[in-house]
Design goal:
heterodimer; A: 173 residues; alpha+beta; 5-stranded antiparallel beta sheet; 5 helices; 24% helix; B: alpha/beta; 9-stranded mixed beta sheet; 34% helix
C-alpha cells in the first residue's frame, strides 16, 4: 500500500536544489509537495494545491506527478511542461518539426534536428522543446555541446516523452 | 415493481427491428418514448459527431482553434464556449501534438453539458462518483481552475490508470483519486458542495460508437443497472451538503435508468427537488403504466438525431436546506 506523506528535510533539500537547477524555485516556493513510494519502491513526488487536504483514507493518486526522487530529482513530463512555462534558464534543446515527430515516438534526437541548445555538459538531463517552446520530452545529452555539430550523430537520448503512455497502452503495458 | 417495462410488438416495430438489426423489444420501447424513432435509428447507424473540449488549464481557446485550423482541421463552435465539433479531421484527433500536450480532450458535447449543469466553482468540494476514464473529471478540474478539492472514485484499478494518465496530460492537480465502489463514498467522511454521478448504465445512447453493445443488451440488464443506479443516487445524497447539488446522468434511453430512477428517489426523500436542466428534450412524465412526478419534465434527454450528441440523460437534484 503506497502512502502519501510530507517530504523529509533531506528530501526537501534535494528538491530545492533541483527546483533551483530547473529555474522553478520561486514557482514551487509556497507549494505543497507530497511523496509517495510506489509499488516498485520508487519515490514519486506530487504537487498539490495548498487547499487540498488528505483524509484518513489514502488516495491511489493525489495531485500532479512532478517527478521521481532518488539521489537526484528526475522531472516527469508534467514537470517539464511547468519548467518550460515558468522557467527562463534551464538545460534544454530545441528541435525542428522532424525532431518533434521523432521524440513523440520515443526516438532519440539527432544533431540534425537540433535548432538551439544551451547545454554544455555530457550526460546532462535536458528538456526537449519544440519550436513553440513547448516541452515534448526529457532527454540526456550524449556529447559535450561543442561536439553537437557532428551531423548524423545522436546528440540526446530521449528518456521520456509526451507520446509514451499511448504507446505503452497500445502494447498493453 | 417489475422492470423493465416491455410493450407488445407492432408491425412497425417488427419492420424497424428487421431493417436496423435491433431486438424488437427495444424498438417497441423506443417507439413509445423517442420522437422520430426511425431518424434516431438512422443516426445510431452512422458515425457519431466528434467533439473536443479545449483544456483552458493549459491553453487558450482562441490559440488552440487557430492551431487546429492551421494543421487542417475544420471546427465548429457549439453552445459551450470551450467545446467544438470537428467537422473535418486531417489525421487522428488522438495523435496530434496538441492532444498529447493536453490542450484538448476528445469528449462528446452531452458529457460536457452534464458538467456544465453542475455549476462548480474554484472553492468547492466536488465529488465525481464514477470518474474513469477522466473526461468529466478533467473538465470539472478545469471549471474549478485547478483549485478547491475534487475527489474522484472508480472501482477499477485498470480504469483508474487511464484516468490518471488523462489527469496528468491535462495538468490536473486538485484531484484525489480513490479506488472505491461509490456506494461506500460516505466512508471518506467528507461532505460535498457538488456531486457528479455519471452512472454506469446500459449504454443504449452510445450504440453508434460501439455496435457490439447491442449483442450484450437484454431486458434484465436495464433492471440490473437501475438497481445499482438507485443505490448510487442514495449514496450521493448521503454525502451532499444541505443546499448542495447533484447532477445525475446516463448515456441510455431506458426510462427505468433515468426518470423512473429519479422518481423513486423523489418518492423516498423529502429534501430533494428537481432543478431545471437547460438543454435537451423534456424528461418523460409518463411511461407505459407509470405516471411520474411532473417535475421530471425539467430533467432533459439528448438525442443523436435532434441534438447531434450521443444519447444522454441529465437530471439536476438539489438537496434542500431543511430548517429544524
Amino acid at each position: 500500500m503506497s502512502l502519501y506523506r510530507k517530504t523529509s528535510l533531506q528530501e526537501r533539500t534535494v528538491l530545492r536544489r533541483a527546483f533551483s537547477k530547473w529555474d522553478v524555485f520561486e514557482y514551487f516556493k509556497d507549494k505543497l509537495i507530497y511523496v509517495r513510494t510506489n509499488n516498485v519502491g520508487r519515490k514519486q513526488i506530487f504537487f498539490l494545491p495548498s487547499e487540498i487536504m488528505m483524509t484518513d483514507k489514502q488516495p491511489l493518486y493525489a495531485g500532479l506527478l512532478i517527478g521521481e526522487l532518488g539521489k537526484q530529482f528526475s522531472p516527469s513530463i508534467q514537470m517539464s511542461q511547468i519548467i518550460a512555462k515558468e522557467g527562463k534558464n534551464f538545460p534544454s534543446i530545441k528541435v525542428n518539426s522532424k525532431g518533434e515527430t521523432m521524440v513523440v515516438y520515443g526516438r532519440d534526437v539527432f544533431v540534425d534536428s537540433i535548432i538551439e541548445h544551451n547545454t554544455h555538459r555530457e550526460n546532462e538531463m535536458v528538456i526537449i522543446l519544440n519550436q513553440r517552446n513547448e516541452a515534448i520530452g526529457i532527454g540526456r545529452t550524449r556529447n559535450k555541446s561543442n561536439h553537437i555539430a557532428i551531423k548524423g550523430k545522436i546528440a540526446v537520448t530521449t528518456i521520456a516523452d509526451i507520446g509514451q503512455y499511448l504507446r505503452e497502452e497500445d502494447l498493453g503495458v | 415493481m417489475v422492470l423493465p417495462f416491455l410493450f407488445c410488438d407492432s408491425s412497425r416495430s417488427l419492420e424497424l427491428s428487421k431493417r436496423y438489426g435491433y431486438p424488437t423489444w427495444m424498438i417497441s420501447r423506443f417507439l413509445e418514448i423517442i420522437p422520430d424513432t426511425q431518424k434516431l435509428l438512422e443516426a445510431l447507424a452512422s458515425k457519431p459527431r466528434r467533439y473536443i473540449r479545449i483544456n483552458t488549464l493549459k491553453t487558450k481557446v482562441e490559440d488552440l482553434v487557430e492551431r487546429l485550423l492551421a494543421i487542417g482541421f475544420d471546427i465548429k463552435q457549439t453552445i459551450l464556449p470551450e467545446v467544438f465539433e470537428i467537422t473535418r479531421e486531417k489525421f487522428s484527433l488522438g495523435s496530434t501534438i496538441e492532444y498529447l500536450l493536453g490542450y484538448y480532450y476528445i469528449q462528446d458535447l452531452s458529457s460536457c453539458l452534464a458538467v456544465e449543469e453542475l455549476d462548480v466553482s474554484a472553492e468547492q468540494r466536488v465529488l465525481d462518483m464514477a470518474c474513469a476514464p477522466g473526461g468529466k473529471t478533467t473538465y470539472l478540474a478545469q471549471k474549478m481552475d485547478n483549485n478547491g478539492v475534487l475527489i474522484a472514485l472508480d472501482p477499477s484499478r485498470k480504469r483508474i490508470r487511464s484516468t490518471f494518465y488523462n489527469l496528468m496530460r491535462c495538468g490536473v492537480r486538485n484531484t484525489l483519486v480513490y479506488q472505491m465502489d461509490a456506494t461506500n463514498v460516505f466512508r471518506l467522511g467528507i461532505k460535498y458542495d457538488r456531486v457528479l454521478l455519471d452512472a454506469p448504465c446500459s449504454c443504449e445512447g452510445v450504440i453508434s460508437k460501439d455496435r457490439s453493445l447491442l449483442d450484450n443488451h437484454y431486458p434484465g440488464l436495464i433492471n440490473k443497472c437501475a438497481e445499482r443506479q438507485r443505490a448510487l443516487i442514495r449514496a450521493a445524497i448521503k454525502v451532499t451538503k444541505p443546499g448542495g447539488l447533484i447532477v445525475y446522468s446516463t448515456c441510455t434511453f431506458a426510462p427505468e435508468e433515468n426518470e423512473i430512477a429519479i422518481n423513486s428517489i423523489l418518492s423516498s426523500y423529502d429534501n430533494i427537488e428537481i432543478e431545471p436542466v437547460t438543454n435537451g428534450e423534456n424528461g418523460l412524465t409518463t411511461f407505459g403504466r407509470f405516471t411520474l412526478n411532473p417535475s421530471l419534465k425539467d430533467t432533459k434527454r439528448l438525442y443523436p438525431h435532434i441534438h447531434g450528441t450521443l444519447g444522454f440523460y441529465i437530471a439536476k437534484l438539489r438537496v434542500k436546506n431543511v430548517s429544524l
